[in-house]
Amino acid sequence: MAYDKDLLSAIAVTRLGLGAKGGEIAQTAADPQGWLMAQIRPQGADLFRADMPPAAERFRQYREIQLARREAKAGDAAATPSGVPDSVQQIRRLIRQDAGADILSRLQLAASTDAAFRERWALFWANHFTVSGVKAVTANLIGPFEQEAIRPRVFGRFEDLLVASSSHPAMLLYLDQAQSVGPNSPAAFRANRNGRRLGLNENLAREIMELHTVGVEAGYTQADVTEFARAMTGWGVGGVREGEGEAGRTIFRDAAHEPGSRTIMGRRYGEGGYEQSRAVMRDLAASPYTARHLATKIARHFVADDPPPGLTARLTQAYLDSRGDLSVVARSLITAPETWAPQAQKFKTPYEFMVSSWRAAGTSPEDIARIAPVMASMGQRAFAAPSPKGWPDDTASWAAPDGIVKRMAWSESFATQAAGERDPVVLAQNALGARLSPLAVKTIARAETRAEGLSILLMSPEFQRR
Q1: Residue 85's beta-bridge partner residues?
Q2: Which among 457, 465, 464, 459 is positioned nearest to 429, based on CA atoms?
């Protein structure tokens, strides 16, 4: 890399991190790559809530409210004047309390961390394995899902991350795997005899193949998806029948597993219950198609909407050579020359924009009730991605005129509170370093007030891109 250290440190902090805190760019100037490498560690990413109740406990709370509602006699259940059953209000309060605290803690970690590359890497994988709060049953499980399944494994083997995320109660509930029963299994036979219909659900199998591993370019067929779904039958979430110790936890019900061997993408998998689905995931994780799919997504997220072919090739090879070791892939990203191209090509999502604004101003979010509506108005409602694909990672999705207007309105409001007596030009220099253009400096310096100067910084092209 022939660029000077000042520019490299600015790129390290603003592109690979979450935006610069005061003095952070200067502190990394001596060794930008070393600053990034030091954030890779075997224990994974930081947890954003040490006191977070586990997913099983939250699921049990949700189910208790549901059961109480079902057991209430018709017309006996308390209802509010609005006509909304009290149990529904209880669930809404539970979700606001749990998910709200999780979102705020996650934002506070992002706004304050000294290991912003590690946090960005964790956020990438949380989005890759999306669980969304668009379903009431999963709305208060996203925080535990991320802390239990994702963050501890983001610098480990991809296979382990795949299995942990796919088998977590939140994912099993979000993609309806908990309801999937082998059509020829003992459980289905008993249910049919009693007049109930149980059957196969392909949602999780399809998303693992299409989104999480090999991708559509692998050329798998509908038959492959169906066979994988059959292999995954048995995975579920413990309920009252399994006893209090298992309620809300991941379990495998042998009686619900579809018997027989499977052939998926040309490979045969013998009959084996739990081990059958585990063997399929092992092979999917090892596939060159998965290596290429993940490499493309990583390059697109960190560097450019149109990923540089050289970078994608490097990351693919790093994955294959290391057998899916994500710490090796992260180091390959850091050392790749394409990563350090001077032109900023990524447009920040609303989440990234707000986090980088807090970091630039040296502040931290305090009230989720005020923040959540703003994020929703910008198009990124916290913990509520619109589909299993997660949030989009391209400029066109976030740079629409309405979104820019919403950012501008928030910038003006935020700057009024955060500017204080500080010189906005100094804030700009700390936030962008060598990426700050002379034109931006001149425009900020000419602002009539400090708040206006900070608002101009936040809406400048240099700050909006990374």
Answers
A1: 79
A2: 457
Instruction: Evaluate whether 419 touches 451 at the Cβ level (below 8 Å).
Output: yes
Look at phi and psi of residue 112 and say left if phi exceeds 0, alpha if psi is from -120 to 50, else beta: alpha
Asked, for residue 23, whether it belongs to a domain, the answer is: no
- The domain boundary residue, chosen from 286, 317, 338: 286
Secondary structure tally for the chain: helices H, strands E:
24, 4
Q: How many domains does the chain have?
A: 3
Strand, helix or coil for residue 41: coil
Residue 276 maps to a domain: yes
Residue carrying the six token digits 């059957």: 199
The angle that helices 222-232 and 274-286 make with each other, rounded to 10 degrees, is: 130
Coil, strand or helix at 75: coil
Domain identity same for 60 and 170: yes
- CA–CA separation, 343 vs 349, rounded Å? 18
Q: pLDDT (tens digit, 9 = 90+) per residue, 186-222? A: 999 998 888 788 899 999 999 999 999 999 999 999 9
Choose one of 286, 316, 342: the last residue of a domain: 286
Domain that holds residue 230: 177-286
**Cβ-count burial 404-421 (b if 16+ within 10 Å, e if not):** eebbeebbbebbeebbee
Where does the pLDDT of residue 165 fall: very low under 50, low under 70, confident under 90, or very high at 90 and above? very high
For residue 135, give both structure tokens.
């379903």
Supply the DSSP symbol for 130: -
Report yes or no on 439 lying in a domain.
Answer: yes
* Residue 28: CB atoms within 10 Å: 23
Alpha helices in 322-449 (DSSP H): 326-335, 350-361, 368-377, 395-398, 401-418, 424-432, 438-445
For residues 267 and 354, state if they share a domain.
no
Report CA torsion sign: 295, 296, 297, 303: positive
Is the per-residue pLDDT at 71 higher than 80?
Answer: no
Are 175 and 203 in contact by the 8 Å Cβ rule? The answer is yes
pLDDT in tens, 301-318: 999 999 999 999 999 999
* Res 2: pLDDT: 55
Is there a single domain that holds both residue 163 and residue 199?
A: no
Residue 317 located in a structural domain: no
- Tell me if the pTM is above 0.90: yes
pLDDT above 90 covers a percentage of the chain that reads 87
Q: Are residues 260 and 359 in the same domain?
A: no
